[in-house]
Design a protein that fits this description.
seven-stranded mixed β-sheet; globular; Aspartate Aminotransferase, domain 1; alpha/beta; 13 strands
């Protein structure tokens, strides 16, 4: 600790991202990255855009990217906000929409950045327990609040909440913002974006990191009615007017426009996910139903921490969470077909 720190810094416990190993030739199944690279059209567009123009600041509004997002989701550009990854978008949401007197609500097992944002922005919050099978019961959220947020599919569980359940939540919660964090929606769910014109308090966030293979470019966005978007723009322009670089804008536009590549790669991931689940069930794993590019699993006869360590020794990295209720589960990202086969072969040797 330093005497030069602001008082709030002393009590912050920062979010810990998944490990980015420095060791070569590991099978990396711990951070939910897409196993397939970006669209070739994205790479070509970045090469063409790499020129003397980089001496200039990018478009502060990222207008081309907003237009591509609006066109894809069939909304107006005034309903779109973009930021440097969905984490920055979420940070602006917490700062601009959740700082009220009542507590913010989110599940007890969910994206672990949420309580970090709450502490940073001094937001009171209340966690709502998931069900026995880690399901969200929307009726549990029918209490006074300053906002509601959860991923759909949820992370790290991968469980999907159906669109009609989200609509039920919106109907019983009309006086505060509901944020649906859809980082993984393209791997098996139906986006709540179709509801934004009907519900003025709904905000949907997405990212190009997962299904569009652009985690290294950092593109996130939110879609909602214009007054919610204006709040985020006010926060952004009071913090950083240029969060999206020129090459990033270019990459995002091309990724959204290449529908064929997007469809091919996401289908590969979903097919592989189903195969991995089948193989792990044969090894007696318990598996939470997943609509994401990862699975959440436990084995009744093997300690999760020990399994993760043994996998690491064999060159496979997965994610183990030490939080109560889930400390016997592993979150396993779906890799390429070859990576999945190697992982399963190694796991077969570890399970007696």
């Amino acid at each position: 600790m330093s005497r030069f720190w602001s008082p709030i810094v002393h009590n912050l416990e920062p979010y810990i991202p998944g490990e980015q190993p420095k060791v070569q030739n590991l099978i990396k199944l711990n951070t939910n990255e897409n196993p397939y690279g970006p669209s070739p059209k994205v790479l070509d567009a970045i090469r063409l855009a790499t020129s003397d123009i980089l001496r200039l600041y990018p478009d502060p509004n990222a207008s081309q990217l907003k237009q591509a997002i609006a066109d894809y989701h069939q909304v107006d550009t005034e309903q779109v906000f973009v930021g440097n990854g969905s984490d920055e978008v979420l940070a602006h949401i917490f700062h601009g929409l959740f700082q009220h007197d009542l507590p913010l609500l989110f599940p007890d097992i969910t994206y672990s950045f949420y309580p970090v944002y709450c502490k940073l922005y001094q937001i009171d919050y209340q966690t709502i327990p998931l069900g026995e099978q880690f399901e969200i019961n929307v009726k549990d959220y029918n209490i006074s609040n300053s906002g509601i947020i959860f991923p759909n599919p949820n992370a790290p569980t991968g469980r999907l909440l159906a669109l009609d359940e989200i609509e039920t939540l919106l109907q019983i919660n009309t006086e505060s913002v509901v944020v649906i964090d859809e980082a993984y929606i393209d791997f098996g769910g139906e986006s709540a974006v179709v509801l934004v014109n009907k519900y003025p308090n709904l905000l949907v966030t997405q990212t190009l990191s997962k299904s569009r293979s652009l985690a290294g470019m950092r593109i996130g966005f939110a879609i909602g009615q214009p007054d919610l978007i204006e709040a985020l723009i006010r926060v952004k322009d009071s913090f950083n007017s240029y969060p999206i670089g020129s090459l990033t804008i270019c990459a995002g536009v091309e990724a959204l426009n290449d529908h064929d590549y997007f469809e091919q790669t996401r289908q590969k991931v979903m097919t592989s996910r189903d195969q991995v689940i089948k193989e792990l069930i044969a090894l007696d794993f318990d598996i939470i139903p997943s609509a994401a590019n990862f699975i959440f699993v436990r084995h009744p006869k093997h300690n999760a921490d020990s399994l993760a360590a043994d996998l690491r020794k064999q060159g496979v990295v997965v994610r183990h969470f030490k939080q109560d209720r889930v400390n016997q589960y592993l979150r396993i990202t779906i890799g390429t077909v070859e990576e999945n086969q190697q992982f399963l072969a190694i796991m077969d040797t570890l399970i007696d």
